[in-house]
Design goal:
It contains 10 helices and 17 strands. By secondary structure, the chain is of the alpha+beta class. It binds zinc ion. The site of zinc ion (ZN) has 3 residues, from loops.
Length: 369
């Protein structure tokens, strides 16, 4: 027990936690991820040999860049957000979704409008309860076509003078916080926790002086939330031999969730491993063996046509790259209070780190051996 506690303290120490908070609190909307990518690369730099970025902003850190055998560990850097779509003459701002942002949670939220003169504060206005009492009229439900922002400007002209125009992005204001029993909450843990975890794997490799017999590509891909696009681009560029993707999955223990449909996954019970056609079975078996050997509890999930994650992009982008998905359970996905457990962060990092150390260029993933 003493040994695993030491491992724990090292993954979430003061320095890594400070990075996590900064990284979570920074906005990186789909298509506009660069400020987050810069923070991430700066944190990663001491632990890697080389780095590159692509045309759309995916960032890659590399250990052993000259090696022909390439292993990827990957997360996605983008967060769901809104686009400014229409500014009314009175200065109210209407929006379009940029990724699967949840309209039901929007009323009365505070936001940042990322205008060309810098961020502008605004709120999602909503009619007061007193003004919704007409029994003949059904209460309005928040929808993308009736939600609006109020930034205090009194006309379209005043909105524009603040640097706001059609096409700028909007993110919720809420950031990182802690609850009792080891829970963290924040906006966009989907999937900045993944970026944090793959960076921790790189740090552990460096600090433990682990020598790898291959090139390790630590990839923070853009544009996952609108169709796994960043991963699609970078998978073609890297052409990896193996890819291990990390993302969030639903904790299904909270009210309203039907386990018959969503499965049985819980925060605090360890990383979840996914079965599905895009997941290469022998890579999955290898990860399960590593979990057993290191006494890391894992949970199981099943998907059908698609994993809904960058795993699909890596599996299918080239001529078939053995790919697997290690997910961290998360409550309230795509809200501003996404919630996860610190033990799952530690155990997901540990599982990825130990898996990386097990793979060699000779590892045979064939279904026919
Ligand atoms: Zn998402």
């Amino acid at each position: 027990m003493a040994k695993s506690k030491k491992h724990k303290d090292n993954i979430l120490n003061n320095e890594s936690l400070a990075f996590l908070k900064t990284y979570i609190n920074n906005a990186s909307p789909v298509g506009f991820e660069t400020s987050g990518q810069k923070l991430w690369l700066e944190y990663l730099k001491p632990y890697i040999d080389d780095t590159y970025t692509d045309a759309y902003g995916t960032a890659v850190g590399i250990i052993n860049p000259a090696h022909p055998f390439k292993v990827v560990i990957e997360a996605h850097a983008d967060e769901i957000s809104w686009f400014v779509n229409y500014i009314s003459e009175q200065g109210f701002i209407y929006l379009k979704r940029n990724g699967g942002v949840d309209h039901q949670i929007a009323p009365a939220k505070r936001v940042w409008i990322h205008g060309k003169k810098g961020p502008v504060k605004a709120v999602f206005g909503w009619p007061a309860i007193h003004t919704r009492h007409n029994p003949d009229i059904k209460e309005p439900q928040p929808k993308p076509d009736n939600l609006f922002l109020d930034c205090g400007a009194r006309s379209k002209k005043e909105v524009e003078e603040l640097g706001i125009h059609v096409g700028v992005v909007v993110t919720y204001e809420e950031g990182f916080d802690e609850l009792v029993n080891g829970y963290y909450i924040g906006r966009a843990f989907d999937n900045k926790i993944g970026g944090f975890m793959i960076a921790q794997v790189a740090r552990l490799l460096k600090e433990n002086n682990d020598k790898l017999p291959f090139g390790l590509y630590i990839v923070n891909a853009v544009q996952e939330e609108i169709g796994l696009r960043g991963a699609e681009m970078i998978a073609r560029k890297i052409k990896p031999n193996v890819a291990i993707i990390t993302d969030v999955t639903h904790d299904t223990q909270t009210p309203f969730i039907n386990k018959n449909i969503e499965g049985d996954t819980a925060c605090g019970k360890g990383p979840a491993l996914t079965y599905g056609p895009a997941v290469q079975n022998n890579l999955l078996k290898l990860i399960q063996k590593v979990a057993d050997k290191n006494k890391i509890n894992v949970q199981l999930r099943a998907t059908s046509r698609s994993t809904g994650t960058d795993t699909d992009s890596f599996a299918y982008a080239n001529d078939g790259c053995p790919s697997a998905l290690i997910s961290i359970p998360l409550r309230y996905m795509h809200t501003t209070v996404e919630m996860l457990h610190k033990d799952d962060i530690i155990n997901t990092v540990k599982l990825m780190h130990e898996t990386i150390k097990t793979i060699t260029p000779k590892t045979d993933f064939s279904y026919f051996s």
